[in-house]
Amino acid sequence: MKISVLSALAVCGLVSCSKDDGVVISDVLKVVPSKMLIEPNGFDVVTFTVEYDGIDVTDKSTVYMADGSVAGLTFATDVEGSYGFYAEYNGERSETVTIVATGSMPAIPEDPEPDNTAFVRRALMILFTSTDCSMCPYAISALHQLSLSPARNSYVLVECHSVARNDPAYYSGPLMSVYGSDVTPYVSADLDVNLAIVGGNPSIDAGMRNYWSLVNEAASSRPAQAGIAASSVLIGSTVSVSMSVKAAQTGEYKVAAWLLEDDIYGSQLNSGAAGNIDFNTHNDCLRYAQYTGSGRDADYTGVSLGTVNAGEEAGYTFSIPVEDGWDVDNCHLVLLVTAEDGGSFYVNNAAKCEIGGTVAYEYE
After folding, report:
1. Among 197, 186, 154, CA closest to 2
2. Which of 6, 208, 246, 282 registers the highest number of CB atoms within 10 A of its CB?
3. How would you label 117-155 residue by residue, b for 16+ Cβ within 10 Å and e otherwise?
4. Distance (Å, rounded) from C-alpha 144 to C-alpha 205?
5. Alpha helix locations (H) across the chain?
6. Which of 63-67, 135-139, 209-213, 235-239 is predicted most confidently?
7. Measured between alpha carbons, how far is 254 from 241 in angstroms, rounded to an integer?
8. Which pLDDT band, with edges at 50, 70 and 90, does 192 fall under?
C-alpha cells in the first residue's frame, strides 16, 4: 500500500498510438470547437476548425462524429446530450472532443476578483489501497487525523482501490502503474517504510505528521499557477463538467475531471487494528479518470488547453459516463489543472465539485 502526494503526474512517452482501423491518433492534430456547451434549441451552433501543430488545416480535413459519420464544420441539435467529434487529416486522427447540449447546466460562477491571481493552492493526495490491505487502516487513521488538522484545506484526497479485483471499489485503470514508474516525478511515502513502528505497529501520529509534511512540501515548492472554476450537471447517465482555468503565470496547462464515489461498503482486512473509524465504509473512491496510452506509459495529465496567458482564462467541457453499479447520488468530482515543469506535467491545483454544483475561483 502506498500513499502519494502528487507534485507531478507522469508524462507519457507515447506521442501517438494506433486504432484498430489503422488510423494514427496524433497529439498535434486537434479539432478546435468554438465552444464546448450549446443550448439544445436547433440554432445554437458550434463551429469547428482543425489545426495540425498549430497550423490551420481545416480546408484539408474532415470532421466526424464519434460514430464515424461525417459531421461537417458546424453542429447544432435540439436533443439534449453529449456529442463526440474528431478530425482526420493526412491519415491521422485527432483525439475526440465532447460538445454538451443542455439547457440545465448551471453557469460557472462569476470571478469574484477579476484582477487577482493569488489562488488558493491544493495538492492532490492519492491513497493506493485495497480492502485486502492489512496495513491500510493505519494510513486511513492517519489521514483521518490529518482531515481534522489545519492542513485539511491544503489537499484533495483520492482513494485508488487498484489492487484486488474483488474489492467493491476496484479501479481497473493503470494509475498505480504510472506512479510506480521510475521516471514519474512525484512525492511518495511508503507506509511500511516511512511510519515509525511502535510496539510492533505503525505509528498513526507519525503517519499524520509525515503526510502533513508532504502536503506542505507539495504546496510550498510550487505555488498556485492557476485557479479552477467549474459547473456540472447529470444528463441521463452522463456527468457533464464545464471547467474554466485562470492563469497566474503564462504557460501550457492541461485539465482533468475525475469521478469519485463515497459510502461504498467493503469488508476491510484488519479493520479493528487502528482507531475508532468505520473502515468498512470507503469514501473518495476513484471510479473514472480519463487517460491515454496504457500500463506504465499511461498519461493522466489531462486535456491540453494550449498556452494560457497570465490573467486570462481557458475552458473545456468533459463528459463522464456513469456505469451500472455506481451510485451517482454518492458521487462527486475532483478537478485538476496540471502545469509543465522541466518537461513533466504535475498537478498544480485541485478542487472538489458536487454533481449539479459549481466551484468558484478561490483566492488567498
Report:
1. 186
2. 6
3. bebbbbbbbbbbbbbbbebbbbbbbbbebbeeeebeebb
4. 11
5. 136-147, 175-179, 191-194, 204-221
6. 63-67
7. 15
8. very low
Nearest in space to 315 (alpha carbons), one of 250, 262, 242:
242
- Cell numbers placing 325: 453499479
3-state secondary structure string across 313-336:
EEEEEEEEECCCCCCHHHEEEEEE
Residue 182 pLDDT exceeds 70 = no
Place of cell 515543469: 341
What's 54's DSSP letter? T
Amino acid at 224: A
pLDDT digits (tens, 9 = 90+) for 86-134: 999 999 999 998 898 988 888 899 999 999 999 999 988 888 889 998 8
Average pLDDT over residues 31-51: 92
Evaluate whether 328 touches 354 at the Cβ level (below 8 Å).
no
Given a contact cutoff of 8 angstroms between Cβ atoms, the answer to whether 274 and 204 are in contact is yes
| pLDDT value at residue 197 | 55
Distance CA 361, CA 364 (A): 10
Residue whose C-alpha is closest to residue 251's, from 317, 153, 337: 337
Render 89-124 in DSSP notation, one character per residue: ETTEEPPPEEEEE-S-PPPPPPPS-TT---B---EE
Q: Are 114 and 175 in contact (CB under 8 A)?
A: no
CB atoms within 10 A of CB 181: 15
CB atoms inside a 10 Å sphere around CB 237: 12
- Residue 25 corresponds to which cell in the numbers above? 491518433
For the chain, count helices (H), then strands (E).
Answer: 4, 28
Q: Which of 352, 345, 126 lies closest to 228, judged by CA?
A: 352
Q: What is the pLDDT of residue 195?
A: 47
Composition of the chain by helix, strand, coil, percent to 5: 15, 45, 45
Which of 163, 173, 176 shows the shortest CA–CA distance to 130? 163
Phi, psi dihedral angles at 195 (to 5 degrees): -95, 135
